[in-house]
């Protein structure tokens, strides 16, 4: 699809430039974006990007050379002074243009997400929409960047503070939200006056290329946003380059811990959103039909490849008897390529991921749990026989020591645990090392309040699974799911991408000597 869009010139109709060279017959290459230009990499190392529903090679993405990565940072360094000094209102106007262009092209972007990531088209639209909301939020950057003032802290002395950008910032993104996560990063970073170097996931690079093309069309000047591609070496370059002041990371534990350690050791700010095990606690007084609908959607939507996917259910008391009805809902879901009408689950990202999920399902059986719905090797239409499909899987009798509970599965697999009462459920959930998301299903205000008060996971839903906060709040993962001091977007995001400068100023309309004071100034006493 991506190549056919290009070949039929539809990208041009969209105003989206051709991102791929036609250097080979059918395998296009993904370009770098440096100083406002789409540049063909000189790399000798390339990674194939495959459509996860068919294994068809969509594009090849370069492992950027050192010179290319340096050129991207140089461009960002050079662009910074003028961008910092662009009025905050004009930066907001550019974000408004950006919003309009994303909306205009939303369907094509969603198709691109579906093709390279595999998720269903409605889900791809949701992926983009949640990112678009951050762009919308960044349009209010003049108020987001307001500082504070106190007049008369002393006679004729005022103190005021304001927020200034850091300089060049960088982002490293995962595969599972090709639009949303780059848009968690770029709008907040640049609207606040920074310049940016993004390394998208090498598994889904094309969506990012469209997003930066649109940013350029919106009026983002050359060098303000740059894209490099690669894997570990590109990430290490970002961690080490002294020009880069802050790194936003979203992805797995292994990479997130590494980037946090290496980036902070080099004196950079790092915000690192990592893996998760998101629990739902189901109380007997919950609205059963709505709860089971919500659970099936949250556990199996996006084939479980959301950092906030519902991956563990704690059934309290007799609610364990609801499991057969959950199984029935899961069985009704349609598994096929994300672009097909009515698809509920597309493929997982890669054959390796599929193998991992299979292995963990098998481990559950080996360790004594029961697979009441087994999604291994589901039936899919013949043309997708090579796709990485895993169907909804439900495992019961799961205990905290089991591999399927301890590891993030990142597939359409729900592990079910049981608990006598709410207190025990809270203790069980809090014992889990992760702290990304959690939800309670109940009709009791008292139970919900107790849960929200005591639960340690810091994105908490009440009768809402996948409680990803809107951008005027922040995404507040915790415990093993987060490293760093400031979270993504919202007030926290503004803090992450800015530093506070505080001015103490004295303006007097006379010039009378007050004597030389060598003691510590005690302005507040005067
Ligand atoms: P990943 O860690 O494999 O890749 C993320 C990025 O890090 C990519 O750009 C990749 O090139 C780079 N990378 C991979 N391995 C690296 C290494 N060893 N050293 C340095 N860089 C490395 O993650 P993924 O598979 O793309 O994404 C899925 C993971 O992301 C899941 O664990 C999911 O929970 C997590 N995630 C978390 C959130 C959140 O907000 N907490 C959101 C989305 C995804």
Write the layout of secondary structure elements.
Layout: H1 2-7, H2 10-14, E1 20-21, E2 28-30, E3 32-34, E4 37-39, E5 46-50, E6 57-62, H3 66-84, H4 88-104, H5 106-117, H6 121-138, H7 141-144, E7 148-154, E8 157-165, E9 168-172, H8 180-191, E10 195-199, H9 205-218, E11 225-227, H10 232-240, E12 244-250, H11 253-265, E13 269-273, E14 278-282, H12 288-300, E15 310-316, H13 323-331, H14 351-366, E16 370-373, E17 393-396, H15 403-406, E18 413-419, H16 422-431, E19 434-435, E20 437-441, H17 445-454, E21 459-462, E22 478-479, E23 482-483, H18 490-496, E24 498-506
Parallel strand pairs: 2-6, 9-10, 9-12, 10-11, 12-13, 14-15, 14-20, 15-18, 17-18, 20-21
Antiparallel strand pairs: 1-2, 3-4, 5-6, 7-8, 8-24, 13-23, 16-17, 19-22
GO molecular function: methylmalonate-semialdehyde dehydrogenase (acylating, NAD) activity
Protein name: methylmalonate-semialdehyde dehydrogenase (CoA acylating)
EC number: 1.2.1.27
Describe this structure as you would to a colleague.
InterPro entries: Ald_DH/histidinol_DH, Ald_DH_C, Ald_DH_CS_CYS, Ald_DH_N, Aldehyde_DH_dom, MeMal-semiAld_DH. This is methylmalonate-semialdehyde dehydrogenase (CoA acylating). Pfam families: Aldedh. It is an enzyme of class 1 (oxidoreductase). By secondary structure, the protein is α/β, with parallel strands linked by helices. The protein has two domains: 32-275 and 478-503, 3-Layer(aba) Sandwich (Aldehyde Dehydrogenase, Chain A, domain 1); 278-433 and 437-462, Aldehyde Dehydrogenase, Chain A, domain 2, CATH 3.40.309.10. The strands form six sheets. The chain has a seven-stranded mixed sheet with strand order 16-17-18-15-14-20-21, with helices on both faces. A six-stranded mixed sheet has the order 11-10-9-12-13-23, with helices on both faces. The chain has a four-stranded mixed sheet with strand order 1-2-6-5. Helix 5 (106-117) packs across helix 6 (121-138), helix 10 packs parallel to helix 11 (253-265) and helix 12 packs across helix 13 (323-331). It binds nicotinamide-adenine-dinucleotide. The site of nicotinamide-adenine-dinucleotide has 28 residues, from helix 10 and helix 11.
């Amino acid at each position: 699809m991506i190549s056919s869009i290009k070949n039929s010139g539809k990208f041009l109709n969209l105003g989206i430039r051709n991102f791929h060279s036609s250097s080979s017959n059918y395998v296009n290459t993904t370009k770098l974006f440096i100083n406002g230009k789409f540049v063909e990499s000189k790399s000798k190392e390339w990674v194939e990007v495959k459509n996860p529903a068919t294994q068809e090679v969509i594009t090849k993405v370069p492992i950027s050379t050192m010179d290319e990565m340096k050129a991207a940072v140089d461009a960002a360094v050079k662009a910074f002074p003028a961008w910092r000094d662009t009025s905050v209102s004009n930066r907001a106007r550019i974000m408004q243009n950006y919003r309009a262009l994303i909306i205009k092209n939303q369907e094509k972007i969603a198709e691109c997400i579906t093709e390279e990531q595999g998720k269903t088209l409605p889900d791809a639209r949701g992926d983009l929409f949640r990112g678009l909301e951050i762009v919308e939020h960044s349009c209010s950057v003049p108020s987001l960047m307001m500082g504070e003032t106190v007049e008369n802290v002393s006679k004729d002395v005022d103190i005021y503070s304001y927020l200034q950008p850091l300089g060049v910032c960088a982002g490293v993104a995962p595969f599972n939200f090709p639009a949303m996560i780059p848009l968690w990063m770029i709008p907040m970073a640049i609207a606040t006056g920074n310049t940016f170097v993004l390394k998208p996931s090498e598994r889904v690079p094309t969506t990012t290329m469209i997003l930066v093309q649109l940013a350029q069309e919106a009026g983002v000047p050359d060098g303000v946003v740059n894209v490099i591609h690669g894997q570990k070496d590109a990430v290490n370059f970002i961690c080490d380059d002294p020009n880069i002041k802050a790194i936003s990371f979203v992805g797995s534990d292994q990479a997130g811990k590494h980037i946090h350690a290496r980036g902070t050791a080099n004196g950079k700010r790092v915000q690192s959103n990592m893996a998760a095990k998101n629990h739902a606690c189901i109380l007997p007084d919950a609205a059963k039909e709505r709860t089971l609908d919500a659970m099936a959607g949250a556990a199996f939507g996006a084939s479980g490849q959301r950092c906030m996917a519902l991956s563990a259910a704690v059934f309290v008391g007799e609610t364990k008897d609801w499991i057969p009805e959950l199984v029935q809902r899961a069985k009704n879901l349609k598994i096929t390529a994300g672009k097909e009408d009515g698809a509920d689950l597309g493929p997982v990202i890669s054959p390796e991921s599929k193998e991992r999920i299979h292995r963990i399902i098998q481990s559950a059986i080996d360790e004594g749990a029961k697979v009441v719905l087994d999604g291994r090797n589901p039936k899919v239409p013949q043309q997708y026989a090579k796709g990485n499909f895993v169907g909804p899987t439900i495992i019961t009798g799961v205990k905290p020591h089991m591999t399927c509970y301890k590891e993030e599965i990142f597939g359409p697999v729900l592990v079910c645990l049981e608990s006598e009462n709410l207190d025990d459920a809270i203790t069980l959930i809090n014992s889990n090392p992760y702290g990304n998301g959690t939800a309670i299903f109940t009709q009791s205000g008292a139970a919900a309040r107790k849960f929200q008060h005591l639960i340690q996971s810091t994105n908490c839903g009440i009768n809402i699974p996948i409680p990803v906060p809107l951008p005027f709040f922040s995404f507040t993962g915790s415990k093993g799911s987060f490293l760093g001091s400031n979270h993504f977007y919202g007030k926290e995001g503004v803090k992450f991408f800015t530093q506070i400068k505080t001015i103490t100023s004295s303006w007097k309309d006379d010039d009378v000597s007050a004597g030389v004071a060598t003691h510590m100034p005690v302005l507040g006493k005067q």
